[in-house]
Amino acid sequence: xxxxxxxxxxxxxxxxxxxxxxxxxxxxxxxxxxxxxxxxxxxxxxxxxxxxxxxxxxxxxxxxxxxxxxxxxxxxxxxxxxxxxxxxxxxxxxxxxxxxxxxxxxxxxxxxxxxxxxxxxxxxxxxxxxxxxxxxxxxxxxxxxxxxxxxxxxxxxxxxxxxxxxxxxxxxxxxxxxxxxxxxxxxxxxxxxxxxxxxxxxxxxxxxxxxxxxxxxxxxxxxxxxxxxxxxxxxxxxxxxxxxxxxxxxxxxxxxxxxxxxxxxxxxxxxxxxxxxxxxxxxxxxxxxxxxxxxxxxxxxxxxxxxxxxxxxxxxxxxxxxxxxxxxxxxxxxxxxxxxxxxxxxxxxxxxxxxxxxxxxxxxxxxxxxxxxxxxxxxxxxxxxxxxxxxxxxxxxxxxxxxxxxxxxxxxxxxxxxxxxxxxxxxxxxxxxxxxxxxxxxxxxxxxxxxxxxxxxxxxxxxxxxxxxxxxxxxxxxxxxxxxxxxxxxxxxxxxxxxxxxxxxxxxxxxxxxxxxxxxxxxxxxxxxxxxxxxxxxxxxxxxxxxxxxxxxxxxxxxxxxxxxxxxxxxxxxxxxxxxxxxxxxxxxxxxxxxxxxxxxxxxxxxxxxxxxxxxxxxxxxxxxxxxxxxxxxxxxxxxxxxxxxxxxxxxxxxxxxxxxxxxxxxxxxxxxxxxxxxxxxxxxxxxxxxxxxxx
Length: 696
Ligand SMILES: Nc1nc2c(ncn2[C@@H]2O[C@H](COP(=O)(O)OP(=O)(O)O)[C@@H](O)[C@H]2O)c(=O)[nH]1
Ligand SMILES: [Mg+2]
Known about the structure:
By secondary structure, the protein is an alpha+beta fold. The protein folds into five domains: 5-196 and 249-272, Rossmann fold (3-Layer(aba) Sandwich); 281-394, Elongation Factor Tu (Ef-tu), domain 3, CATH 2.40.30.10; 404-472, Alpha-Beta Plaits (2-Layer Sandwich), CATH 3.30.70.870; 480-592, Ribosomal Protein S5, domain 2 (2-Layer Sandwich), CATH 3.30.230; 596-678, Alpha-Beta Plaits, CATH 3.30.70.240. Helices cover 28% and strands 33% of the residues. The strands form eight sheets. The chain has an eight-stranded antiparallel beta sheet with strand order 18-17-23-14-15-22-19-20. It has a seven-stranded mixed beta sheet with strand order 2-3-1-4-5-11-6, sandwiched between helices. Helix 6 packs across helix 7. The radius of gyration is 31 Å and the shape is elongated. The structure holds guanosine-5'-diphosphate and magnesium ion. The site of guanosine-5'-diphosphate has 21 residues, from helix 1.
């Protein structure tokens, strides 16, 4: 079936882990006729949780995409992971979808991950709504959850459906927009009937509220509403489309996905009134960095954005494309702006979970897949090869930085390359995973969003590549610096057979402010060291600074002044001056009261209120300095400065303090001096490392 921008809707289902997202997604596919029999998450057979790692862990790890046809529309739904370890795959669906539906457990209210995602959506001004599920459970309490939502999100959501009964007596939902009731049927789709009398009053007031919300959509409708006290059904729909697209109202739906309840009204609302590409904007970044909103426009030439890259056992590399303007056609030529490369598109697919369906064309606003692309990677911008000026790109995904790192080595040396290649590929698939070789600490370091994330990736590689991998805590990149001025002289002299070596320098070193790095001042008068040997002097100093005199860490924040020297017309060379300078630097550094520096990070921790005290006392025991604390919407936020050395296993520590609910961001801030026992331990460890290195 040929779709157009008017008939596409993209919805991301997101929220705290275990709030029923995957179940809702599965049941929506069932309600939409895509699958005949919905499966339980525990069976490992759901459409969405289909990768080996998801089946093994019984949680969603990757974003899944499937579509349903409804009222002449194509509804694309994303199921997303709930754990903050896999937040990258949630963020990319927020980028690709025009609407996000947050699931809330009807028993517990909005949990921490949901509150964080809510904030992320607000920051993007992305329209969003709520689906309260689990209403079939005896512990569920819709009114309490509604109060919790009002309190945490500071909004009054507009009910699109209302529950009939609760717990064991939960019968189904009332669809306000279509004036219908949907009753639970055992092992079948909910059934439409008239609204029972006992719910007529509740329906009437919810209806009024919905019409009022529709009137908020635009001024003409508001006038009409104020004049007549109501709106015609067509006006209600039009008003809701506008109010939702402008993110002016938050719709709330109810149900029990596991009992197939609340699905049909949700599908109809998605098809009829939810925002879609037609009313959404994307953001382009011009060559000079300015950002501009652009409409999704079917009448322009093709442009699109790679939201995700995956590798499929059978089809190879899959590049997921959101088409922003024009159409993407099979067997066409595209231009990858980000790589400055033209490329031939072969086959095109859309996906139904893991199943790929071949298609000839993907229209504006839709999401499809290019297979086996040579150049495409996540965040790339594509244009039609016929487009002329192509300096603009689409705004990249704004992903969080990794917070948990481990150093990895293959147990068998011969597997090193294989491990490296697998990690590079994993970091292409998942941009919240970073893999790099740290030349300074001589370690291959894998960083991710948490222990679960990193372990999952490593387990996957171990199984797929059949290699054994060893992990350890990464070394901390300490630095060395000096605390006072000092000078030293060094003469490098060698007389062997023919040509000798001669170079003499006098240097003075002085501390620079933190972050001052390195400055070289040539203060030579009268050619005591000729110009052509100065590069040698600078190289020697650079070598001296690469390994400090305390524990062999790089030296920073030093000004080095070359004051005097001496040369020999025959024996002097660049090499002689390099060696003289390196030794002079080391001698001077020893006299300049050298000290070790450790990296200090800015840490922000997000936890439920009740854990604030425990988290703060743990941070104090980690030499942390608390900078501030806030509570917004039931989530405590603690900002602190903490030495990196204390945070190497923080994702594990925080998980145990907060029963897995806390999360944090961390970024390097500055270097600070250390002394006493802490410094001694660092020196001891560095010496042990050096001995080990020399033995190897
Ligand atoms: N009783 C009840 N159980 C549900 C409902 N929705 C999901 N569940 C169960 O809750 C568990 C977690 O659901 P899942 O869909 O994996 O949550 P997700 O982590 O948000 O994807 C599973 O055992 C589901 O069967 C519901 O509406 N009612
Ligand atoms: Mg799930």
